[in-house]
Design goal:
Elements lengths: L2 E3 L4 E5 L5 H10 L1 H4 L12 H16 L4 E7 L2 E12 L4 E8 L8 H15 L5 E7 L3 H9 L3 E12 L2 E11 L6
Parallel strand pairs: 5-6
Antiparallel strand pairs: 1-2, 2-3, 3-4, 4-5, 6-8, 7-8
Helix pairs in contact: 1-3
Length: 180
């Protein structure tokens, strides 16, 4: 299992089955907050759903298709991030992330994403990291902007979130830009 200590407050760990119950509780406690931007919340209704998701992500990790990481802040699960898809042929990692609402504003996701970028370019030999955020999700958009990603365009009606089709902003960071 990998475990990365970013500082005295933030640690990252490969998501494992032992985290399922605590991660479910965080998800459930933030359900209304997250439903603004994430379409999958109705499929996670009990801890066993989170466990199945984590087990699926571990299989995808084993195949080199994805990386799902649990974020710990002050020894509590605060959220997740990772590569939802690793396109090995083209060297592209499609990153995604979310934090519980109570953890916003502490720099947690910025530090965590910096480390994910480093892992992508160093260990996965990615050439590009792609992040897509809902146009109106300003907190989520601020993170790639802060880390030097380039805004590359808007995909109209990219995602159906509970009957509302959201436009996405596409951000990209290239390995040769040499930031990480």
């Amino acid at each position: 299992m990998f475990f990365r200590k970013l500082n005295n407050e933030i640690q990252l760990s490969l998501s494992i089955p032992q985290y399922a119950e605590e991660l479910f509780i965080l998800t459930d406690n933030n359900r209304l907050y997250l439903k603004q931007w994430l379409p999958w919340l109705d499929t996670i209704v009990n801890p066993s759903d989170t466990l199945v998701f984590i087990e699926t992500q571990l299989l995808r990790f084993q195949k080199g298709e994805a990386l799902h990481v649990t974020i710990f802040y002050q020894n509590k699960i605060a959220g997740v991030l990772g590569y939802n898809l690793i396109d090995q042929v083209n060297g592209i990692g499609y990153a995604g992330y979310w934090l519980g609402q109570e953890y916003n504003g502490n720099g947690i996701m910025t530090e965590s994403l910096k480390d994910l970028i480093h892992l992508g370019f160093t260990y996965y030999s990615l050439n590009r990291i792609d992040i897509r955020c809902a146009v109106d999700n300003h907190k989520s958009r601020a993170i790639p902007e802060r880390l030097g990603f380039q805004q590359e365009g808007i995909i109209r009606k990219a995602e159906n979130v509970y009957g509302k089709h959201l436009d996405h902003v596409v951000y990209g960071l290239l390995k040769e830009e040499g930031r990480y």
